[in-house]
């Protein structure tokens, strides 16, 4: 299977300029001296998550003749917002297929970016999205299972390497594996001595199990839905799993309580509102020190979309 | 009176590299189309406030022969943390004089950065600081009333001009006026068509009153202490007031309720934890549209240090 290269990521970086924010590394003042920590705050991207990087790279690659026919995505989460936001930036029509249990606020937020929202029974999402693609000649923008999406997310790794060339450990959340595949590709090419470690909730630890088994191990949707980290309930595809096997050093897991308390820590100590999925890497830094290499560490804070009520609960 | 120049600010930018974070402009997705908004998130600086810029520039200017004798500051707020943090970065001893009513958590935070903390009755702060300077040959780092401090804060304006050259309105909190003086100097030099507007709480609106009167109007400490924006209770000096008269287009005021609700808006919509003082500019954007020029707007979010309990209260 062909893996993406760092050249693909360099090309993606050119394409997403002006759409994605070039986020800084934020040094933390509250860390152990032999393993200083920097945060990569992707929660500060326009729709509150790294997802716009991959969406922008994939959309920039659509041939001119196909652009007017628009894009389609199926997602109820950050990917939906990302595709809607980037499509408007690029002047493309977008249709987002969402399951009927999606909260109204999320549907309204997606519509506010100018996208058409198609509400369907949850089991019909892929079928309806594919039908829209066929009927309209639109382009499907998948959330992670595509080389252009992986390369777009990998631009985070380029920026880490540029800002902290002697980084020793990069912590990345893992769900479908697009973000981790992309970041690992960039870091292993540019900072070959750095370790790249994925982090997932222990209640959705299918990737850790898969890497241990050397093949993709399926966890049920029901099991993966138990974690509060609702952005980390997907599982790697063949494509992303091939990247992870080749380029990721390890995957560690964190508990629900560690995730919840770290949301509060990030708000009070780093002044960042992170969603639970975005907090897992800092949770690993704080609670899995024994399982991680020491040294200069970067934690990718992948997103910041959570309900105000949940934020208050986690802070109280 | 000599005002600082944009050349002073360019020189400051070179000096503070590696100490202050180069913060990005964050485009907001929830704004009116004819006046798009970007946030300048200075709450993400290492100690949670823009103050490290001025402190770093002032410390970098200390002659080599005087460095070992260290620095002194009097402050109970963000300036204390900033001087302590930067002094450690620069390898200089630091003594911070704080009033005896300072919360223990703030004293501990300052000590955690390696500074000596000298607790005194509130009326003795300046006297004790000056005595330490005289006894030790140390250098006083004032919070705003110094050209090097103003030039350091002005680097925020350089970054805004570089990232958004066609900016039309820059909103800046005003207290002692160092930040506003510096940013206005940079913006008026580099983006002469842009308006620079200060924002202060209506309960501490001495700067608005002073600009209207054409001379510094004193409000009592007691009156200025009423606002929740505890970083905006100081008043301009002769030096900063001279900059404001020359280079600031207007000062607008916001109410306590507007400040409080905007802290919640920034947390939920921009994923930033801002302290009340840091939220006033976004509050002005949201609630003083009629008093402001329309067009591309930048709001400086100056800091993010507030107690967890207050954050929960403002979010609830």
TrEMBL record, chains A, B:
Q: Which UniProt keywords apply?
A: Lyase, Pyridoxal phosphate
Task: Note whether Lyase occurs among the keywords.
Answer: yes
Name any one GO molecular function. L-serine ammonia-lyase activity
- This protein's source sits in the domain of life called Bacteria
Q: Which Pfam families match?
A: PALP
Q: What is its EC number?
A: 4.3.1.19
Q: Which cofactor does it need?
A: pyridoxal 5'-phosphate
Catalysed reaction, written as an equation: L-threonine = 2-oxobutanoate + NH4(+)
What SUPFAM superfamilies would the database entry show?
A: Tryptophan synthase beta subunit-like PLP-dependent enzymes (SSF53686)
InterPro entries linked to this entry: Ser/Thr_Dehydratase, TrpB-like_PALP, TrpB-like_PALP_sf
One of the protein's GO biological processes: L-threonine catabolic process
| EC top class, as a word | lyase
Domain called Tryptophan synthase beta chain-like PALP: residue spans: 21-303
Q: What's this chain's function?
A: Catalyzes the anaerobic formation of alpha-ketobutyrate and ammonia from threonine in a two-step reaction. The first step involved a dehydration of threonine and a production of enamine intermediates (aminocrotonate), which tautomerizes to its imine form (iminobutyrate). Both intermediates are unstable and short-lived. The second step is the nonenzymatic hydrolysis of the enamine/imine intermediates to form 2-ketobutyrate and free ammonia. In the low water environment of the cell, the second step is accelerated by RidA.
Family assignment from sequence similarity: Belongs to the serine/threonine dehydratase family.
Q: What is this protein called?
A: threonine ammonia-lyase
């Amino acid at each position: 299977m062909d893996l993406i290269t760092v050249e693909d990521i360099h090309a993606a970086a050119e394409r997403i300029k002006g759409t994605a924010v070039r986020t800084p590394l934020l040094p933390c003042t509250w860390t152990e001296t032999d393993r200083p920590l920097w945060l990569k705050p992707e929660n500060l991207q326009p729709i509150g998550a790294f997802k716009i990087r991959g969406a922008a790279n994939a959309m920039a690659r659509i041939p001119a003749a196909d652009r007017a026919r628009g894009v389609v995505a199926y997602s109820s989460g950050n990917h939906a917002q990302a595709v809607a936001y980037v499509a408007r930036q690029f002047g493309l029509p977008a249709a987002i297929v969402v399951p009927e249990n999606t909260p109204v606020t999320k549907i309204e937020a997606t519509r506010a970016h100018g996208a058409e929202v198609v509400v369907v029974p949850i089991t019909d999402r892929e079928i309806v999205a594919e039908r829209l693609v066929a009927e309209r000649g639109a382009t499907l923008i998948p959330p992670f299972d595509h080389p252009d999406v992986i390369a777009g997310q990998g631009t985070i790794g380029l920026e880490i390497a540029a800002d902290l060339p002697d980084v020793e450990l990069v912590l990345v959340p893992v769900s479908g594996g697009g973000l981790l595949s992309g970041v690992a590709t960039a870091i292993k090419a540019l900072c070959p001595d750095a370790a790249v470690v994925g982090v997932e909730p222990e209640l959705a630890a299918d990737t850790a199990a898969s890497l241990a088994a050397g093949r993709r191990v399926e966890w049920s949707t029901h099991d993966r839905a138990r974690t509060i980290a609702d952005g980390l309930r997907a599982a790697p595809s063949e494509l992303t799993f091939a990247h992870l096997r080749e380029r990721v050093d390890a995957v560690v897991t964190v508990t629900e309580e560690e995730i919840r308390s770290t949301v509060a820590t990030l708000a009070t100590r780093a002044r960042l509102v992170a969603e639970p999925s975005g907090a897992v890497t800092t949770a690993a830094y704080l609670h899995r020190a024994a399982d991680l290499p020491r040294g200069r560490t970067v934690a990718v804070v992948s997103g910041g979309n959570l309900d105000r009520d949940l934020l208050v609960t986690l802070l109280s």
